From TrEMBL:
SMART domains tied to this protein: KISc
CDD domains (alphabetical): KISc_C_terminal
Keyword Acyltransferase in annotation: no
Family: Belongs to the TRAFAC class myosin-kinesin ATPase superfamily. Kinesin family.
Protein name: Kinesin-like protein
PROSITE patterns per the UniProt record, alphabetical: KINESIN_MOTOR_1, KINESIN_MOTOR_2
Alphabetical list of InterPro entries matching this protein: Kinesin-like_fam, Kinesin_motor_CS, Kinesin_motor_dom, Kinesin_motor_dom_sf, P-loop_NTPase
Organism, as annotated: Bos indicus
Compartment annotation: Cytoplasm, Cytoskeleton
Gene responsible for this protein: KIFC3
Residues covered by region (Disordered): 648-694
Coiled coil: 4-93, 140-206, 261-292
Chief location bin: cytoplasm
Chain ranges of the Kinesin motor domain: 306-629
Residues annotated as binding ATP: G389, Q390, T391, G392, A393, G394, K395, T396
Amino acid sequence: MVENERLRQEMRRCEAELQELRAKPAAPCTGCEHSQESAQLRDRLSQLQLEVAENKGLLSELNLEVQQKTDRLAEVELRLKDCLAEKAQEEERLSRRLRDSHETIASLRAQSPPIKYVIKTVEVESSKTKQALSESQARNQHLQEQVAMQRQVLKEMEQQLQSSHQLTAQLRAQIAMYESELERAHGQMLEEMQSLEEDKNRAIEEAFARAQVEMKAVHENLAGVRTNLLTLQPALRTLTNDYNGLKRQVRGFPLLLQEALKSVKAEIGQAIEEVNSNNQELLRKYRRELQLRKKCHNELVRLKGNIRVIARVRPVTKEDGEGPEATNAVTFDPDDDSIIHLLHKGKPVSFELDKVFSSQASQQDVFQEVQALITSCIDGFNVCIFAYGQTGAGKTYTMEGTPENPGINQRALRLLFSEVQEKASDWEYTITVSAAEIYNEVLRDLLGQEPQEKLEIRLCPDGSGQLYVPGLTEFQVQSVEDINKVFEFGHTNRTTEFTNLNEHSSRSHALLIVTVRGVDCSTGLRTTGKLNLVDLAGSERVGKSGAEGSRLREAQHINKSLSALGDVIAALRSRQGHVPFRNSKLTYLLQDSLSGDSKTLMVVQVSPVEKNTSETLYSLKFAERVRSVELGPGSRRTELGSWSSQEHLEWESACQTPQPSARAHSAPGSGTTSRPGSIRRKLQPSGKSRPLPV
Ligand code: ADP
Ligand code: MG
């Protein structure tokens, strides 16, 4: 039936098309090439007609000119005729008079004397006549010349007339040619129109024939469809039967489906359970591995020592000058990289530290040594790295470095970023940085809006025993660009604050505090590790030059804080029960990062040149003292939280009467050797110096 309907529609469409074709008027087919050509021809025809009109105008002008010239010629001929008649009359008159005169002369000759008289008279008369004659002849001559001239003019005019005639003939020929062309174009156009008409009629006929054929085919199809329809009816009947059967089956399907779903659900549940238990097992293993890794790392660092002291010798620079003062006084042991030899006042002195870096060591070599410490920060350990040494020995170079060759600070942050990224699939980390400085025992924020503001160190009110600095700015950093911005900001703050930054920075401790906070995505476990990078104030003993006033106060503060640091490290290394963290702002601030499982590295910077051997010796002694602390029996973990009130009281009283430097004056085992006249004695008026617990 559908097929039938379709065919019927097709038939209707064909009939409509046929109707349309029949109804189509003999309108010119727009856009066909013949109509374009006929339009062109029409244009050409109108152009030619225009030209003909123009030529006709020209012709009439020429005709007018010819007419005018002919008129003038007739006039001239008339005048010429008049002149000739006048001349003939004159000639006639003159010849008549001549004849009369001759007759008179003859009659007079026939007479005697009286005749003589007559002759005379005649002669007289004859001369007059002769004159008249000659005048007449002259006039005659003139008239003849005029006639010749007129003839010449006439000839020219005739020539002009002839050429005008020729032009007219030419124009006529052209007009005839155009007219013939026009006729031809017109004929062509008519022919084209005729052929177009024929084409159109032919197309209509063809379309009609085609439509008739199609209609016939449609009729045939219709008949076929009708017969098909008759045969389809039994098939339809069987299909209906099938459909009814299927319908019955479908009614029973939900029940079947429910059963299948139930069994599949049970299977999936079992599989999930299995996966879950597998996951639990894996998680347990992972945690165990994590613990193991931490333990191993701990062990490794412990084997190296939780507190390590290394030395770095800077190369001889231009600033060292020339001459004997600038000669090198430091040598190394080729077989042992923990030994350094110094020639001081002609006497060789040797020191053993955890490691010694010669002046050839690169920033990367030094960083390699501290790398393990920095990664332990990610595992939640607190780390302190100090650069110690006299001003100009390379502390800032080691910690900050140069833009082309950055030091520990920037390399550490880069390493942290890459490590954190590696673990990003399991852990979520945030890294924040703070920068502070301690000058004259006053703590200031280098990243704050008001760097002048004094900051206080407080105990966390949560009773955890942790310390914190209210108001210390923390910046979250995610890339090297962020760190550079933070460093730049800190530097700008310091530069605007102090006119002579170099001098100021050598007398203050600069701290970069990096905090790494992590959350284990699968377990929710949280870790916090703190990395403290400290560029200490210059360790040189100012007393040598006899400082006074503010310079002396600065020196006292530096001396005190560096001694306190030495004391704290020594106490920690010897595992003493009491660690005097509170003896300086620096140690108090870093208490968390120095105690417990924390790891500390002291980089002792020394200058290699002769003129600095005194300070080099002093720095190396400090390093060795700190390092060679005997491991005592005290508790391994020393935490502020477990301090007795007695210890607090001790700190309070120490604060009220500032204790002089606790820095020892002696080399290990060499006994006390006081230095008369040195600033150190001036700084210790009581003479009761607390010896370094070495
Ligand atoms: P400090 O901070 O201890 O006062 P600096 O780090 O400012 O000393 O170093 C003093 C000078 O010596 C600087 O010009 C520095 O570039 C240079 N310097 C220090 N250590 C090195 C080194 N290992 N290699 C090259 N130059 C160094
Ligand atoms: Mg410096």
